[in-house]
Amino acid sequence: MGAIIGWIIFGLIAGVIAKMLMPGRDPGGIFVTILLGIGGALVGGFIGRAIWGSTGVNDWSIGSFALAIGGAILLLFLYRMFVGRGKGTGTGTTIDRGRRAA
């Protein structure tokens, strides 16, 4: 039980820091931020292991937070890249809908 609460707190801290480092309009409140941080820890740990043989995110150290925050920033970037494509007309212009500028 303590490990689950630890991951929730760790994910919240990492998710909040990632959102502060990469400002913009993102969905969700505290639960999405927690999931973002936990997902970032998993992604960051996997990348760290693959690139330089890191032990991953397994304790409350600066290295673990750096991996988790880096992974959360990557997830935010990917989210914005895919969601941003679905918005608009695809031509790079906005539709005025009959309104005229003064």
Question: How does the helix and strand content classify structurally?
Answer: mainly alpha
Count up the helices.
3
Specify Rg, calculated over alpha carbons. 18 Å
Task: Bin the strand percentage.
Answer: under 5%
> Termini separation (Å)?
61 Å
Structurally, the number of domains stands at 1
Total E-strand runs? 0
Biggest sheet details = none
Query: What is the approximate shape?
Result: elongated
Order of helices and strands: HHH
Overall pLDDT score: 77
Regions with pLDDT < 50 over 5+ consecutive residues?
Answer: none
Q: What portion of residues is helical?
A: 55-70%
In short:
With 102 residues, the chain is mostly helical.
Give an account of the 3D structure.
The protein has helices at 2-21, 30-52, 62-86. The chain has one domain (2-85). Helix content is 67%, strand content 0%. With 102 residues, it is mainly α.
How are the SSEs placed, and which strands pair?
Elements: H1 2-21, H2 30-52, H3 62-86
Any key phrases for this structure?
102 residues, mainly alpha, 3 helices
